[in-house]
Prior knowledge:
The structure holds two protein chains of two kinds.
Chain A: H1 2-16, H2 19-41, H3 46-79, H4 82-87, H5 93-125, H6 132-156, H7 161-175, H8 178-187, H9 191-203, H10 213-217, H11 224-250
Helix pairs in contact in A: 1-5, 2-3, 2-5, 3-5, 3-6, 3-7, 5-6, 5-11, 6-7, 6-11, 8-9
Chain B: E1 4-13, E2 23-33, E3 38-42, H1 49-56, E4 64-69, E5 72-73, E6 83-86, H2 98-108, H3 113-126, H4 142-154, E7 160-164, H5 172-187, E8 191-196, H6 199-205, E9 208-213, E10 216-222, H7 223-228, E11 234-240, H8 248-253, E12 256-260, E13 263-268, H9 274-283, E14 287-294, H10 298-302, H11 315-318
Parallel strand pairs in B: 3-8, 3-9, 6-7, 7-8
Antiparallel strand pairs in B: 1-2, 1-4, 4-5, 9-10, 11-13, 11-14, 12-13
Helix pairs in contact in B: 2-3, 2-4, 3-4
Amino acid sequence: MAAIGVIALNTFRESLRDKILYNLLLFAGMLIGLSVLLADLSITEHHKIVADMGLAAINLTGVIIAMFVGISLVSKEIDRRTVYTIMARPISRTCFILGKYAGLALTLFVNVAIMLAVFLITLWLYHVPIGLAIFQAVGLLFMELLVVTAIALFFSTFSSSMLSAILTLGMYVIGHLTTDLKSVAGKSASETASMVMNGLYYLCPNLEAFNIKGQAAMGIPVGSDYLVLASLYGFAYAAVLVTGACLVFQRRDF
Amino acid sequence: MGAIVIEKLTKTYASGWLGRPPFVALSGLSLMVERGEIFGFLGPNGAGKTTTLKILLGLVRATSGTAMLLGKPVGDVETRRRIGFLPESPYFYDYLTAEEFLGFYGQLAGLTRGEIAPRISALLELVGLVEARTRQLRKFSKGMLQRIGLAQALIHDPELVILDEPMTGLDPVGRKQVRDLILSLRDRGKTVFFSTHILPDVEMICDRVGVVMKGRLLASGRVEDLLRQGHTHSVEVVCQDFNAEDSATVRSYATRILQQGRQCLVVLPNADLLDRMVNEIRQRGGRLLSVTPHKASLEDLFFQSPAHTTSDVPTEILSGRPN
Lengths: 254, 323
């Protein structure tokens, strides 16, 4: 178990020393700042625009980090052959995968926390009321990032970086359209199309379950039962994918 | 039980394309490395050296055959506490400093922070990187990376050290340092198994060698025994005021005569002819300047002789067991 922590901390340290991450954080900060300008241009709902844009900026930056760092988590180790010296140590392949995942989760947590702090300062400066809904939205957004990271990690254990990126992006897009897929499946005249849509609905994660940004921007919190269920769903989906990643990684030759 | 015991190891890689034959990297390789010896694993590029090492470290699964490390089957995670490994042309986490890098591998090996700190200092001293202790690895030269790689392989004081091409990328001074380091490991009772294609290094430091080619063990044994197999040593004689071309006797046995001014170079096919040659020089009033024996090298034995196939090597040498 200690090995998981060592790998996780090293992964976190790697991201801390990566300049791209700071650029992304700067980008998020600029987007949050831009929300104030956009709010000034609108006639009504200034507060909603600031909150909405801020949450979207955190979401976008978080997904970029989760996706692109996630797909390189394992493939970079294999391409650069750093995995050779790690696997020669007394740690199992499962520990390695869990450590990499935990390291990126920690990186995302710190990044989301920094962006949330910038966002809260912006809200406070613009006199937007800061309620529970904002924190709930960011919490579920973080849960979505954990699922996206698990998807990226899973694909990166058996495919190239490019293919992993395409597959993860595809899953992310479909993940936000699963409700539509279900309704299209219900209305489709073709049985095959209906089966494919239903298959995708059950296979792909329902990422919309983590999206409460719209109502959070209006200051309306969700019930605690929804939060618990959505979180459990996210944890379960991520756990299945990480387990799959471990199983694939166990069988790999380097 | 030897430190490394390999029996009938085979590795076949699928081609990935229909119709293409699979690639056989190893074909029934058997080998044994005794505890406390330096074993050189020789072979040209693509012979199967790295594949063998990868199987030993659990990075690649063998198609068939068995391999044991320190009495345990390969893949046993706990055995890796007793093994140090340096891969070929290693790339390490270049955002880490030398100190952080060694600390990271020390932690992975299960050492406590109290144990790691003195090990880091000792190893940086050993590989001559004390000055670079707080420098990030991305600012290291290739030779420095090789040396810090060696240090990470030794951070947990392993019983068995496996090195893949440890001399690659090193200048002559660096190569000597690595050679000395390997010898010092043996002096401390460690087993060193290293692959290389730099033969003079092997001849200098190895107790035994194994030669692999096209996935098969061509020969294995003590370096001296392998060199003795049917090979004679040539001798170069340089003399003055003696014209070898004028001597029918010398012409009859010399393999080469080169006359330059007052000096003459004569190459003899073996050392047995040296006395006759020296007498001839004296009788004709010449003066002997130098005698240089040339030993047959492993390179001569295995890589310059196209006729050398498995069947040419005596069975006791092919067995892979120490003499």
